[in-house]
């Protein structure tokens, strides 16, 4: 029997009787994050959306083409060690529970592999958020706790399959990873139309993907960085597929995951077995009830700050943002511009700096607040 319990820390203290908190699905500086998130996340945000739209129009007039932010990407600020410390710290300090943390960068397992080298990281799961093209869109599948001895080879095959997908290659890989008893395979944020194909076509693709590969999946994700309305749709997708729900915070910045799993398991393999049997207990943290757009804006502000202790030496924000030029070269914005930014960037930076103002933050919170019943 599939049972998925959902608890909210601001409503009750649901941690009694549990031994462990599990943080699933968060990112490190090893992930590449598309710059088109700026257009998506600032839509409807006072003063920001209008300013960005005006600059897009200006670019169109000057260049005769649309500004394609998909050619650019940024990297999250935290190293694998910093990300693990942040997630484990929330669980151990706020919940007083043992912590299990699975970092899953986009199509990269290096975070878990690096942490396992440390003397206190031998039990860290090696995990990845695998991109699977499907029809006119793509889906993200969380693959948690790969067998270490095969992880590098499997990751190479995943990357090759993403680049040149066929149903046979996808099925073979999903069959292999799902067959490992300690591995957990999760359909991440299935209700999010990340490719912008439209709600009807996206729904058809989700149904088609589950019809073809659903037998290899163990759970459907409720995402800590997606709105509750969308998570309710994800819950319905899971119910229709006969899959339990599981948490996935999807943290990219310095705010820890907004949802976690609770378990009596001592190891990640034991936790994975529990989910695969169909039982999942999720806990949403208090910051999930804050405005999602405000949380994203604050995260963007953090990303645009200088970081003298950056693990890769990318101390300035424009060292950590990259763009593929017309001739195919990849350069950081620091290499492209030096210290002289285009006016659109200066305006954007100026607007983002307003987020630091207590008065502006208060006004934004009021403007972006939403009433949510938090009922599945």
Please name the CATH architecture of the largest domain. Alpha-Beta Barrel
Q: Could you give me the name of the CATH homologous superfamily of the largest domain?
A: Metal-dependent hydrolases
Helical/strand content category: alpha/beta
Low-confidence stretches: none
Percent of residues in helical segments?
25-40%
CATH class group of the largest domain? Alpha Beta
CATH fold-level assignment of the largest domain: TIM Barrel
Q: Which strand order does the major sheet show?
A: 1-12-11-2-5
The end-to-end span amounts to: 18 Å
How many discrete structural domains? 2
Q: State the major sheet.
A: 5 strands, mixed
Fold topology:
Elements: E1 3-8, E2 20-24, E3 33-34, H1 37-41, H2 48-63, E4 72-74, H3 80-94, E5 98-102, H4 110-117, E6 128-134, E7 137-144, H5 148-163, H6 167-178, E8 184-187, H7 199-213, E9 219-223, H8 228-241, E10 245-248, E11 259-263, H9 268-276, E12 279-284, H10 292-303, E13 321-324, E14 330-332, H11 333-337, H12 343-353, H13 358-368
Helix pairs in contact: 2-12
Concise structural overview:
With 376 residues, the protein is α/β, with parallel strands linked by helices. It has helices spanning 37-41, 48-63, 80-94, 110-117, 148-163, 167-178, 199-213, 228-241, 268-276, 292-303, 333-337, 343-353, 358-368; strands at residues 3-8, 20-24, 33-34, 72-74, 98-102, 128-134, 137-144, 184-187, 219-223, 245-248, 259-263, 279-284, 321-324, 330-332.
Can you tell me about this structure?
The protein is of the alpha/beta class and 376 residues long. It folds into two domains: 3-31 and 76-289, Metal-dependent hydrolases (TIM Barrel); 48-73 and 293-368, no CATH class. It has 13 helices and 14 strands. The protein has helices spanning 37-41, 48-63, 80-94, 110-117, 148-163, 167-178, 199-213, 228-241, 268-276, 292-303, 333-337, 343-353, 358-368, and strands at residues 3-8, 20-24, 33-34, 72-74, 98-102, 128-134, 137-144, 184-187, 219-223, 245-248, 259-263, 279-284, 321-324, 330-332. A five-stranded mixed sheet has the order 1-12-11-2-5. A five-stranded mixed sheet has the order 6-7-8-9-10. Helix 2 (48-63) packs antiparallel against helix 12. The protein is globular and about 55 Å long. The protein starts with a strand and ends in an 8-residue tail after the last helix.
């Amino acid at each position: 029997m599939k049972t998925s319990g959902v608890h909210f820390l601001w409503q009750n203290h649901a941690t009694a009787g549990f031994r462990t908190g599990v943080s699933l699905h968060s990112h490190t500086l090893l992930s590449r994050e598309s710059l088109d998130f700026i257009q998506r996340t600032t839509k409807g945000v006072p003063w920001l959306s209008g300013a960005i739209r005006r600059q897009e129009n200006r670019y169109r007039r000057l260049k005769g083409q649309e500004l394609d932010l998909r050619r650019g990407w940024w990297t999250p600020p935290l190293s694998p060690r910093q990300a693990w410390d942040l997630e484990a710290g929330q669980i151990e300090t706020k919940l007083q529970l043992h912590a299990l943390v699975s970092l899953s960068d986009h199509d990269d397992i290096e975070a878990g592999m690096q942490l396992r080298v440390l003397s206190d990281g031998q039990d860290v799961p090696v995990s990845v958020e695998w991109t699977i093209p499907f029809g006119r869109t793509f889906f993200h599948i969380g693959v948690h706790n790969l067998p270490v001895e095969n992880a590098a080879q499997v990751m190479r095959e995943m990357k090759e399959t993403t680049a040149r997908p066929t149903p046979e290659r996808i099925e073979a890989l999903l069959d292999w990873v799902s067959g490992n008893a300690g591995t957990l395979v999760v359909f991440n944020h299935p209700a999010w139309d990340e490719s912008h194909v439209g709600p009807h076509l996206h729904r058809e693709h989700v149904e088609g993907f589950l019809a073809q590969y659903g037998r290899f999946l163990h759970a459907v994700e409720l995402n800590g960085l997606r709105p509750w309305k969308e998570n309710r749709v994800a819950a319905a997708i899971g119910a229709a597929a006969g899959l339990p729900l599981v948490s996935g915070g999807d943290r990219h910045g310095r705010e820890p995951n907004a949802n976690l799993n609770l378990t009596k398991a001592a190891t990640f393999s034991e936790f994975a077995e529990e989910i695969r049997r169909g039982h999942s207990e999720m806990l949403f943290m208090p910051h999930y009830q804050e405005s999602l757009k405000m949380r994203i804006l604050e995260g963007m502000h953090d990303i645009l700050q200088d970081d003298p202790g950056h693990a890769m030496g990318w101390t300035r924000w424009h060292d950590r943002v990259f763009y593929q030029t017309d001739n195919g070269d990849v350069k950081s914005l620091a290499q492209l511009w030096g210290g002289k930014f285009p006016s659109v960037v200066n305006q954007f930076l100026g607007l983002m700096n307003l987020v630091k103002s207590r008065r502006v933050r208060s006004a934004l919170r009021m403007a972006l607040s939403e009433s949510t019943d938090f009922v599945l």
